[in-house]
Amino acid sequence: GPGQAEMYAGLQELGVANGEDLKETLTNCTEPLKAIEQFQTENGVLLPSLQYALPFLDLHGTPRLEFHQSVFDELREKLLERVSAIALEGKVEERYKKLEDLLEKSFSLVKMPSIQPVVMCVMKHLPKVPEKKLKLVMADKDLYKACAVEVKRQIWQDNQALFGDEVSPLLKQYILEKENILFSSDISFLQNFFSPSPKTRRQGEVVQKLTQMIGKNVKLYDMVLQFLRTLFLRTRNVHYCTLRAELLMSLHDLEISEICTVDPCHKFTWCLDACIREKFVDNKRARELQGFLDGVKKGQEQVLGDLSMILCDPFAINTLALSTIRHLQDLVGQDTLPRESPDLLLLLRMLSLGQGAWDMIDSQVFKEPKMEAELITRFLPLLMSFVVDDHTFTVDQKLPSEEKGPIPYPSTIPEAFTKFLQENRIACEIGLYYILHITKQRNKNAFLRLLPALVETFSDLAFSDIFLHLLTGNLTLLSDEFALEEFCTSLFDGFFLTACSRKENVHRHVLRLLLHLHHKVAPAKLESLQKALEPTKQSGEAVKELYNQLSEKLELRKPSPAEVTETPSMELPLPTMPTPASR
């Protein structure tokens, strides 16, 4: 075929006979057998000792091809070993000169499957493959595929579009993996999105592949960062910020100083990485991080864009927010105001830098966002007052009650709290983490009190996947409350169902939760929820799939009439007496 001809064409250039030559010899000769013998002699392996060995192999029925093939394989192995050795010995210029000469001689045979590995091996060991050869490789799909990553890097660094084509499916895969974890059917307060350690996350397939593709090549590293920035701007998807940090730390793990020393975020990211590992920013590291932020020099403000992206990583935000809640509780105990705590102020400073990442990169105005004084003087003291309310209520419960009857839990929310959650991004983030905190403490009273504030929040943060993933996990700790009509009405009708129809992701999270807890929910409530959550024509596949799973489960647990009467009496509403509010 034409492929064959093309494949062996390179032999003639090197003065080696090929099939075409044999055909020509046979066409123009009078004694074909003699001609074949002569061709064999001229083009066989030139070793005197073989003259007698070959007829011996013929007697044993070993085909000449098999013999030549095994000699060839042996030689090729030796040659590959030799090429790898040349790449390590002698003076740098000399060894590369040898390899370049070898490439010059062998490149014309690159299409021969038997020789190709040798050519590829030579190129792999050359730090600079001649431009002409790279162009030939690039123009041929099969050759490009067969290339070592060392050669591909040389091609990529001058072909951003081609590199983009290689990186793009990996980035898609990464985002998909993150979303699969957030919507995972395993719901637990022990294992969640933030459970894996940074080191474990960096072992992920995509991070490893990108690290391998970049090698020590700063140009390729910069290109990947550029892709991540562009995608973050286009989609606002914060998982790109996680990948930005993971990639840098993966190169750090491998001690690739060529890249780490030129990334101005390296030391900051390394320090923050240690905080994320501990899920807490301790005082020593806080000082260090502050040193980096204060050390940003005039004329280098652009680094803030990168630092803000590192701080916008949800794993960083999670660590900063958890640390903030812990600090606030400590302050209550110490009777200190938020504005008197430098550690707390630093956490807020980093939170606002992270939360401001998109705006900063979009506007290209590199300066730290101004912190709103009200956040520190009004909002945080408000949160601290909630902590105090809980203490007071707990202590009151324990005191012997004099005729005054039980003290009710405060049920109203200060209007200021709701307003802050709607209008201030940082306040909203911290408020949401406070709600996760009280849910984890199984504090049902505080949860029901603050829940109404979540219906309208700053850019719908309370309906974001990360928050709902964490909330559903923590709600498993309150699973016994799902038997109570009032709790379910507050949680489902008062919160989840307000957004289900306009936000597909909320619909998915509610179904996830019910799949996990349906056996705890009062039957009447379950029935009305099943109606309310029915998918519409517009619903995506994921919602339909979850809804079908739920319906199947509920079909299986339809009780027989005998079981209904055995419901523990406390769970049945008492028809005649008006019940005192159970909050």
User: What spatial form do the alpha-carbon principal axes imply?
Assistant: elongated
Q: Would you report the number of β strands? A: 0
Helix % is 55-70%
> Span between N and C termini?
85 Å
Helical segment tally? 32
- Amount of beta strand: under 5%
- Domain module count: 3
Low-confidence stretches: 567-580
Structural class computed from helices and strand pairing:
mainly alpha
Q: Mind telling me the C-alpha Rg?
A: 35 Å
GO cellular component, one term: NELF complex
InterPro entries: COBRA1
GO biological process, one term: negative regulation of transcription elongation by RNA polymerase II
Pfam family, one: COBRA1
Note down, in words, how this protein is organized:
This protein is mainly α and 583 residues long. 68% of the residues lie in helices and 0% in strands. It folds into three domains: 83 residues, no CATH class; 214 residues, no CATH class; 153 residues. About 2% of the residues have low confidence. This is NELFB factor. It comes from Rhipidura dahli. Pfam families: COBRA1 (PF06209). One of its GO terms (biological process) is negative regulation of transcription elongation by RNA polymerase II.
